[in-house]
Amino acid sequence: MYTVHLKNNKKFTCDANTTIFEAAKKAGISLEHSCLTARCRSCVVKVLDGNTQDKNDDMVLTDEEKYDKYTLSCNALPTSDLTLDIEDLGDIILHDKQIVPVKINSIEQLTKDVIKVKLRLPPTAKFKYNSGQYVNLIKGAIKRSYSIANAYQEKTTLEFFIKKYENGAMSNYLFNEAKENDLLRMEGPLGSFFIRNTEKENIIFLATGTGVAPIKAILERIKASNDYTDNKNYWLFLGARYKDDIFWNPSDLNIPNLKYIRALSRETSPFDGVKGYVQEALLKEDIDLTNAQVYACGSNEMIKSAKSILTNNNLSEKDFFSDAFICTS
Predict the structure, then answer these.
(1) What is the number of domains present in the chain?
(2) Burial degree of 195 (CB within 10 A; 0-12, 13-18, 19+)
């Protein structure tokens, strides 16, 4: 049995056959995470002292990162006592994962390849989540992960933005076969993509495609809780290829200190926004990144690029939070 120390002086024990994440969870300590399958980077952590070995093959971290003793807490087994360069999630409550039945309430076409699906829970369901988290939707043998696109409220339908993928089993069902009142199962809540309490004044959101879903939920939560009155500046950079790919904008939320910027990478006609990628659009705004938190959701490529660019421009690595969309075959 080994002892794992965190940078905020918390500690827990972990045996050689249990991952760091699972041992922390058993000890009542919540760590950053998302997919829990060693396919995203949400649980990456630097080992300051001690050694680990991978439970499964890791295709996420670079050779340089591994040499610098970075690992994935959901995949790392200790081979000695450890000191990790992370803190836990503090006082944030992570609601227990459960599997509940849901029915399709409505399906709305937003663009040629994106729909909005609303699901309703049984009246007796006690399903809670933190705005920004995701769930697994289950149809027979098919299971796919989708972020909830609206803020948590009791007794409400849950919204999802679903993108159509060629040969995608779940998206084919939802686009071509699903109908009102179809019964599905839902597993969750999952992930640790939600807003943190911070003294930082600039709160920045980056999204590409349907990655705007959890950010929409977080912004709705900010609006409902009146957090926007606390002298913070909010920024939303929404990226797409063309104007017609944008299917949501935050104007209906009426958050007075939210600045919304579209970044379009391939649009050739005039538009209100910035030509290029979201991370490049952010740098053009000359925001003080030493006084900022960044929340990024979308493609893994965007997230890796954004983290590299922004931390090289004075954003603290601990103030970058992300949820990468990993394609499932």
Answers:
(1) 3
(2) buried
